[in-house]
Amino acid sequence: MENEGAKEAILVQPRGWLLLLALLAGNVALALGPWLVRLADTGPVSAGFWRLFLALPFLALFARVSGQALSGIPRRTLVFVAIGSLAFGLDLASWHVGIEMTRLGNATLFGNAGSIVMLFWGFIIARSLPKGMEWTAIIFALAGAAILMGRSAEISTATLIGDLFCLTAGLLYAVYLINLQGARQTIGGWSLLVWVSIFACPLLLTIALVKGEPVWPTDWTPILVLFVSSQLVGQGLLVFSMRHFPPLVIGLALLTQPAVAALIGYQVFGEILTPLDIAGMALLGSALVLARVSRRVAR
Asked: CA-CA distance, 291 to 141, in Å (whole number)?
């Protein structure tokens, strides 16, 4: 409780505004990812491979500068990291495929569904049923998902399938988080990202080749901006700022991602949102915030 109070107190300090700005900037940088995946002239899974591969030397440098060891990790811990990393690779592949098939706002919301899955995981660990606000999160999530998927089905079968790919990505992201919970207690954040990339890169490249995707880009600009904005700036700012805030603030900051993605979808791709779409996004977005606040398993 004292720790949560200290985190809340940060918001009223001058330095707290800089940390909040870093948190929001990290979310905005991540929200650019779906747009850049669409712009890339590689396949969507290939774009995910380059995002991780190009960031590897920088992540290793950050780990070294931070004094985080990349070796000497216990074998048992490394096994869980490997399993989680493979789930993350599949998450990224599924999400990037879905991005090209559905609206950007939907892709971002469903891609973050891992927070809700982790809420359910908390019930399993605690062997208890949801209570109070947790039921609200579940009802909002189901209602919001039903509205957004129903609207996608009205547009075309392809957009509904895209929603399902992105929702699958959210489920796989939860598997990634669950397997890395123990590792997060013993391995530094940058070092952990290095190992995740080492395990996930070969999987993404294999999937891209099996799918017959173009792997080598002819225009490197979207790929370079993707890896800088998503993997270095986005992930870096979140790693730096998230530990300073309570779950409610982090959850609310998370909502900047679908908002920015939906705005890009409207401005660049003409993806018009109806009042019903906005209601569905509001419900699902609220569920993500409530799930993060209520979740009993730390991210």
From this structure: 9
**Number of domains within the chain:** 1
Q: Does 62 reside within a domain?
A: yes
Contacts of 241 (CB under 8 A, 6+ apart): 19, 20, 22, 23, 26
Express each pLDDT in 84-139 by its tens digit. 999 999 999 999 999 999 999 999 888 888 777 777 776 676 667 777 777 787 78
Measured CA angle at 23 (ends 42, 201), to 5 deg: 30
- pTM for this prediction: 0.84
Residue 9 CA, chain-centre distance (Å), reads 27
Residue 299 lies in a domain: no
Q: Tell me how far the alpha carbon of residue 239 is from its chain's centroid.
A: 13
Q: Which residues in 148-164 are b (16+ Cβ under 10 Å) and which e? A: bbebbeeeeeebbbbbb
> Tokens at residue 237, please?
């700012």
